[in-house]
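User: My collaborator sent over this chain with a note saying "see what the structure looks like." That's all I know about it. Can you take a look?
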Amino acid sequence: MKSKHQQHTFVKNIFFISIPFFLLLATYNSRGDKYNDTDLTPKWVDQMVASVTDKISKRNEVYFQKGQQIFEKFDEVKLSFDENMEILDTALFYFIESNCYDMQVAVLGNKGAISYYEGDFMRGEDFIEAAYTLAIKELPPDNQYYLEAMHNRAIFHELKGQYKKAENLYFQVLSLEKELENTGPISLAKTYNALGGMYFEKGDYYNALEYHKKTVLLIERTFGVGDKEEIPFRVDLGNALMTLTKYDEAKASYFQAMNSISCNNLISDKKYIKQSEFYSLMGLAKIYLHENKLDSFLLVTKDAMLISESFEIEFDAYSIDHLLGKMYLKTGQDKKSLHHLQEAYQALEKELGGIKKDPNLSLILVDIAKAESQRALLDQSLKTYQNALAGLCPEFQSDDYKDNPDITMFFNVKTGIEVLNGKAEALNLKYEKTNNIDYLKAAHHTYQRINELVSELRNSFYDINSQYQLADNLTTVFEEAIGISYDLYKITGDPQYIKAAFKFSASNKACVMQSKINFTKRLSASQVPDRVVDRLEYFRHVKLNEEKTLYDMQRADNLDVEKIEKSKEKIFDVSNNYDLFYDSLKTFYPEVFAQNLFQQDLSIESLQTSIGNNELLIEYFYGKDALYIFSLDNDCIEFHEISKPAELDDKIVALKELLKNSADTEDAFIKKFETFRNHAHFLYNQLLSPALDAVIKEIEKIKIIPDGELNNLPFEVLITNPKQENPEYYFHTSNLSYLLEDYIISYDYASALFLQNKTNTRLSNKKSVLGFAPKFPDLQLNIKEVDTISAILGGAVITGEEATKAAFLRNLNKYAILHLSTHGAYNKGEEAYSTSIQFYDTEIYNYEIEQLKIGADVVVLSACETSAGKNVNGEGVISLSRSFSIAGCPTVIANLWKVNEGASAEVMKLFYTQLKSVTDIDVALSNAKLKYIEQSGWSKSDPYYWASFMLTGKTML
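Assistant: Without extra context I'll predict from the sequence alone. Here is the result:
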């Protein structure tokens, strides 16, 4: 049966063969012969053309049938490479003779695949490119072989580390498959799974997990749970879950795959089934190794080995030795580790047919180098790292430990970071052994190259959770980089190392937040039509809303399975539409969607120019083993390393907990006071004293950029001197010397955002305020609070039943200050909807706020826990305050804990009274807190009542 395209080709051939006859007729007619205009073609010509057409059709049909018969003999499992290649060459001849382009594309694709599996990567790529070129030229987009050619080309781009090209092709295939009716669920599932695999290789693990979940869900919807079709996809889902340390879910996915094999009686023969069983066992082995369950590890590894020995597993038989090498490396058995790792390397090298350009080869070399380092073979270890780099960068060939490839040479950025990090650690060990500073400088240069690669990798991710994970994983890497910079600075006295350390610190601060803010700005300034922006926001809004609905349903007391499944299907469909739409926008509007959204190279000079004469910026890097403090004024930068004492973490956590609760009795109050005073003074000495003691000029203001456990610590409560002159006052300023008394404190998420806010001239001089105060039975003073502040500063109020979500959205851009006095909550759920603020009719979640365009200069969240949230390493606290900043508000005042309503209302009254006469928002808030303490009795001077309000962002109105 010929395709429509084949039939079209036959007609085209007939046309060219018939040209001489039509020329003859035209000549005959021009001589005035008997044929008139209405019947130019004699019957004998029609009969001849029909005869020629029939002969061509029959000839092509015969060749096509021969080609098909030969092609059916192709068997990549049972036949050798040479036998299969001979079959494909013969089939290709007949398909060429029959003008059957779709089967030519199919044969070329198979030739490319088996060439690659044989280890001839370059030849395989040539065949795949030939298939793709032929498909684009000769096949219509609705042809399955057209899609296969695009899919295969995407795979080869992925293998070369060209993830952007691969992603674009996969999305093109996905878009066509969704439009066409003749593509089944298996084809669609394979594309989803391929996208998941591509994201996995790139290191974008949350996106990988998302697409592997889509794959399994599609198969389950089509064939039912436990069907044999889901087996290989279940394994890939398990791998994604394992990489994200979701070990219990990963185990369940592996066991489900093996259970499906058993239930479907598929134990014996099919190659992909054996492979799936093998991969499931290997996945379980990796989890058991992570969990230090070595008995279980050895048991499943043995089962995987039996499969490998009885049934050839292409490309991954080496992984058993690699895993055993890792196990021995972990248990300190370096000699055994080296043996297995070298066996793994040789086995993979043999399977690859001499191809060195494979990330798995480099990863094995990294483990070999680590084993060599543990055996004190540091020179050999450095040579091994250089070989690993050469494997990732074919153009790079250097045995000199000082040399690193340019970032443009890496075909796999994620693996490149792993290799360079291992090399930097080995160089540092070599320095410690030899005291030769050249090794330390080489390590520093290597970490600078890592930082460049991190920027490259980070900008290729658009899934937020993957970006969060990347920041978390890199915390240790940047800690080492900053530590080496500090050592070099102390040895050489060269200030370039202070600047380098600061850039290491700043490059892993609030990157997701920066990307969101920059994206919004770029979108607003672009030529992208409003309808396109609205469509993008609609998809994202529906997706997040439905995910929130599903999240709530899954945690309800009475589970509605049918509604949960419908919600999953809706999320599935909306996610697909969002991904396809977003990808198309990257093609049409690359200036917005495909460019770097992160701060690449923060200029310290520009930063210092933005710091006021009486201002000090202090940025922290809170590492595992050390605390690094950077303090900048407009003249100089200071750098301090504090070896973290064992009690530092405990005292920070304890102080935060003390602040969140008031003491109910006098005995409890006295006990709290003693503990608070000790902790607050200890933390002042650790966190601030080193920076402040080094300052020469007079400082009035301090901008804090916290990190790690320091997030959501109100620094103004730290005690500079543990004096106790008037015990009856306890927490009063006459008894304790708070930092609040000496400096005006404010906060920011990152130095880059501080710089943006300083150079942002958007703020107006208006001081009009809009107060929002919904009516709730358990809030008695919030309406009075907004009435009071409106009377002080001027403006309007929306209260009671009129304080709805819709009213809030209508007034985002009408006033300089938005003041919300209501309920706030931190729900400790998924980050996107973990925090919310309440209106009269409904709540609004942080993910919704981030999509708004807020025109107010200041937002004041006079509600509980509006600065609270999950702390993400490198990113900060995922809070309502942060969401308002992302939405465009340069200044946000929010609460750290569940506040006392009366005290909160009083602090706000004092704040607006101060703001009426000053333009410095931080000064107004600081003075309000001091005034509150002065007029409070001993029981209300507790920082619980006044220290919860935190100002983040711009400080001038």
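A starting point for your reply to your collaborator: The longest helix spans residues 43-71.
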